[in-house]
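This section describes the prediction task in plain terms. A model, or a person checking by hand, is given the sequence of a single protein chain and must write out its three-dimensional structure as a string of tokens. No templates, partner chains or ligands are provided. The sample shown here is typical of the held-out split.
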Amino acid sequence: PNPTTGHTLITVPQSATFTLSNNQGQLVYSSNLIAGENTLELPLYLPDALYFYSVMTEGYAKASGRLILSR
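The expected answer:
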């Protein structure tokens, strides 16, 4: 869901990498995903803000968008 409280469910058809960047383009979080459902708990050190996510497989972005973190 968007906004998220930090608990996010992502389903991917194959292994992938989830990355989260801040509004300055700095990578603030990354996680490897396995095929199927993946539960991500975003770190508590991330402040409430707008972030940009990307799901990459084999070096190509398969999905990207905005994620609002609001705890």
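For orientation: The longest strand covers residues 60-69.
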